[in-house]
C-alpha cells in the first residue's frame, strides 16, 4: 500500500504527497471528473455527491459528503488556475447547500500538481491556510486520516481501470 505523506511548512501550510499506480492522465481524470471523483473523494463510510461542477478557471465544484446517518456536509471549490494533466488551484471551504461559505470553518488555498514518477503518478498538494489556528482546526477535524482513507479509495478504483 502506498503512503500519504504530510509535511507541515511554517505555521500555515501543509504539503501532502502521494503516488498512485496509474498514468498521469488516469489520475488527472480521477481528480477532475465527477463520475470518478464521487467514487473516492469521501472517506468511507461517507460518500461524496457532486451537486454541480464547472471545472474551468472561475468555475465551482459544489458537493456534499453524506454520512451513514444521512447528514450532509457541503463543501465548495472555486478554481483559479488549471493546466490539464499538470496542475490546478483553487479555494476550498465548507458551505451551505447553495455554495455560501460557512465562516465558522477555515477556507483553504489548494495547489495540486501531477507528475509522472516512472510508471506511477505523483500528486503534490500544497494547502495554505490563513493562520496556524486554521490549519490546526482542520487537522483536529480529522483531515489527515480522512484524506488518507480517500486516497486508499482512489487506489482501489485505479486498480480496476485498464492501464
User: In what range is the share of β-strand residues?
Assistant: 35-45%
Compute the number of strand runs.
8
- How much helicity do the residues have? 25-40%
Low-confidence stretches: none
The general outline is globular
**Tally the helices: what do you get?**
4
**Major sheet size, sense and barrel closure:** 8 strands, antiparallel
Radius of gyration: 15 Å
- The topology string of helices and strands comes to EEHHEEEEEEHH
Mean pLDDT: 95
Q: Order of strands across the widest beta sheet?
A: 1-2-8-7-6-5-4-3
Looking at how many chains there are and whether they match, the oligomeric state comes to single chain
By secondary-structure content and strand pairing, the structural class works out as alpha+beta
In whole angstroms, the N-to-C terminal distance is 18 Å
Describe the structure.
It is a single chain. The chain is an alpha+beta fold and 163 residues long. It is 26% helix and 40% strand. It is built from four helices and eight strands. The radius of gyration is 15 Å and the shape is globular. The model has no long low-confidence stretch (mean pLDDT 95).
Blueprint (SSEs and pairs):
Layout: E1 5-9, E2 13-20, H1 24-32, H2 34-40, E3 47-53, E4 60-66, E5 72-83, E6 87-94, E7 108-117, E8 120-128, H3 132-140, H4 143-160
Antiparallel strand pairs: 1-2, 2-8, 3-4, 4-5, 5-6, 6-7, 7-8
Amino acid at each position: 500500500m502506498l503512503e500519504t505523506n504530510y509535511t507541515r511548512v511554517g505555521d500555515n501550510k501543509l504539503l501532502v504527497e502521494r503516488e498512485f499506480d496509474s498514468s498521469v492522465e488516469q489520475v488527472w481524470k480521477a481528480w477532475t471528473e465527477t463520475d470518478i471523483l464521487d467514487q473516492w473523494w469521501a472517506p468511507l463510510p461517507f460518500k461524496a455527491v457532486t451537486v454541480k461542477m464547472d471545472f474551468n478557471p472561475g468555475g465551482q465544484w459544489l458537493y456534499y459528503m453524506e454520512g451513514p446517518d444521512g447528514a450532509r456536509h457541503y463543501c465548495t471549490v472555486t478554481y483559479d488556475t488549471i493546466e490539464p494533466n499538470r496542475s490546478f488551484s483553487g479555494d476550498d471551504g465548507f458551505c451551505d447547500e447553495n455554495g455560501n461559505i460557512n465562516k465558522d470553518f477555515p477556507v483553504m488555498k489548494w495547489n495540486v500538481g501531477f507528475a509522472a514518477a516512472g510508471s506511477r503518478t505523483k500528486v503534490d498538494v500544497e494547502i495554505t491556510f490563513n493562520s496556524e489556528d486554521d490549519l490546526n482546526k482542520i487537522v483536529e477535524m480529522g483531515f489527515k486520516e480522512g484524506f488518507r482513507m480517500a486516497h486508499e479509495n482512489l487506489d482501489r478504483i485505479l486498480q480496476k481501470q485498464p492501464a
